[in-house]
Amino acid sequence: MALDSKKNLIQKIVNVFESGSPEGRYDTLVIYADGANNSHQITYGRSQTTEQGNLRALIDMYVESNGKYAADFVPYLEKIGVESLVDDESFKRLLKEAAQKDKKMCDTQDKFFDKYYWQPAVEFGKRNNFKLPLSMLVIYDSYIHSGSIPMFLRKRFKEFTPSNGGDEKKWISSYVDVRHQWLKYHEKPILRKTIYRTQTFINEMERGNWNLEKLPIDAHGIKVK
């Protein structure tokens, strides 16, 4: 996939999905009941990593970079992902302040989201011979939103990946369709509300915008170009 020229656009679209801004709001912090057993957890940052997911890895990277607030985060390192911090107002204030007042936190987030989400998504694309920019947008969004391309969704359609002789557009269309239905009827209302993501991809496929050259792209009501 020739992605270098489209990476910024793809990430802008997903940033809109995650924080409402093409540039990404690095200090975004919300509490969702989407953790284990529907528990509440902090989600944080430009593309929203979770307390029960990779937030510890992000803060580890920030501390290692010797950011302005590194020493303040150290006492929390062994707690993140182990005990709930949703009611710890000092910790939440620290997360927001670091993103608002220390560029190192923003730089760390950029490196973190590349390492933990963009690069694995690119590797999935290369491994399976996906080449189109819209395909990469769909794949990257799935890694950001679900952590992967979930096998339980892949099992719901029969199209092979391009590396196995399948048609790229048919595979992506099928994946988006089953993901759209999965989100639309999900037992968790918070996930049902996110079908604007897959609807965006459906809209672009209907426009024939596989190379993401028809700009702007409407991402949840925000025009991205």
Describe the structure.
With 225 residues, the chain is mainly α. It has one domain: Up-down Bundle (Chitosanase, subunit A, domain 1), CATH 1.20.141. The chain is 52% helix and 7% strand. It contains ten helices and five strands, in the order H-E-E-E-H-H-H-H-H-H-H-H-H-E-E. It has helices at 7-19, 55-64, 70-73, 89-101, 103-127, 133-146, 151-154, 168-184, 189-192, 195-206, and strands at 29-32, 41-44, 49-50, 217-219, 222-224. A three-stranded antiparallel sheet has the order 1-2-3. The longest helix has 25 residues, at 103-127. It is globular, with a radius of gyration of 18 Å. It starts with 6 loop residues before the first helix and ends with a strand. The model has no long low-confidence stretch (mean pLDDT 95).
Annotate the secondary structure layout.
Layout lengths: L6 H13 L9 E4 L8 E4 L4 E2 L4 H10 L5 H4 L15 H13 L1 H25 L5 H14 L4 H4 L13 H17 L4 H4 L2 H12 L10 E3 L2 E3 L1
Antiparallel strand pairs: 1-2, 2-3, 4-5
Helix pairs in contact: 1-6, 2-5, 4-5, 5-6, 6-10, 8-10
What is the string of helix and strand elements?
HEEEHHHHHHHHHEE
* Number of beta strands: 5
Number of domains: 1
Helix content: 40-55%
**CATH architectural grouping:** Up-down Bundle
Number of helices: 10
CATH class: Mainly Alpha
Q: How big a fraction of the residues is strand?
A: 5-15%
- What structural class do you assign from the helix and strand content? mainly alpha
Write out the strand line-up for the largest beta sheet, numbering strands in chain order: 1-2-3
Name the CATH superfamily classification.
Answer: Chitosanase, subunit A, domain 1
CATH topology type: Chitosanase, subunit A, domain 1
| CA-CA gap between termini | 20 Å
Radius of gyration: 18 Å
